[in-house]
Design a protein that fits this description.
single chain; about 140 residues; 5 helices; binds zinc ion
C-alpha cells in the first residue's frame, strides 16, 4: 500500500512541471515521445517505483504472519561443529507478542530458501488458564 502511494505521488509531482495537463497518475504520452528529458525522468521514476515495491516485499519477510508486527530479537542457533545435534546455523526471530518464530538459514547453499515460520499457540491463553485453576490465590503454607 505504502509503495503504491509513494509511486503514484511521485509521478503526480513530476507531471506538475510539464505543461500539457495530464490526468492524475498517468504518464504524459505526448511529452514522453518528444521530450527526451521527460522520458529520462519517467525512466528514473520507473526505477524508483520498482525499488519501492522491492523494499515492501522484502520487508514482509521480517514480519509476524499473524499480527504483521516487526519480528524482534534475532539470535543465532545451531552450529557447524555440532550440526547433527543442534542443526545448521540459523538466525531465529520471534514475534514480541509470541505468535511464532522465524528461522532463516545463515548460509543459503541451494539457492534462496524460504524462511521457516513456526506458529506458536497463544502464550497469554496458557497463562490465564493457569491462573483460573488457582482462583487467583497464591499458594500458601498451612
Ligand atoms: Zn505476532
Amino acid at each position: 500500500m505504502g509503495a503504491m502511494m509513494g509511486a503514484a505521488g511521485s509521478l503526480w509531482f513530476l507531471n506538475l512541471f510539464w505543461w500539457p495537463y495530464t490526468p492524475l497518475f498517468h504518464v504524459n504520452t505526448y511529452n514522453f515521445t518528444f521530450d527526451l528529458f521527460y522520458t529520462t525522468l519517467v525512466g528514473v521514476w520507473f526505477l524508483f517505483a520498482y525499488g519501492l515495491f522491492y523494499v515492501a516485499i522484502w520487508d514482509q519477510r521480517y514480519r509476524c504472519r499473524t499480527c504483521l508486527r516487526k519480528l524482534r530479537m534475532p539470535i543465532e542457533t545451531g552450529s557447524w561443529g555440532y550440526m547433527l545435534q543442534l542443526g545448521r546455523p540459523q538466525i531465529e526471530y520471534i514475534c514480541p507478542y509470541g505468535h511464532g518464530k522465524l528461522n532463516i538459514d545463515e548460509v543459503q547453499i541451494s539457492g534462496v530458501t524460504s524462511p521457516e515460520w513456526t506458529e506458536q499457540g497463544d502464550i497469554w491463553q496458557e497463562l490465564f488458564a493457569a491462573s483460573s485453576t488457582n482462583d487467583g490465590e497464591p499458594d500458601r503454607e498451612r
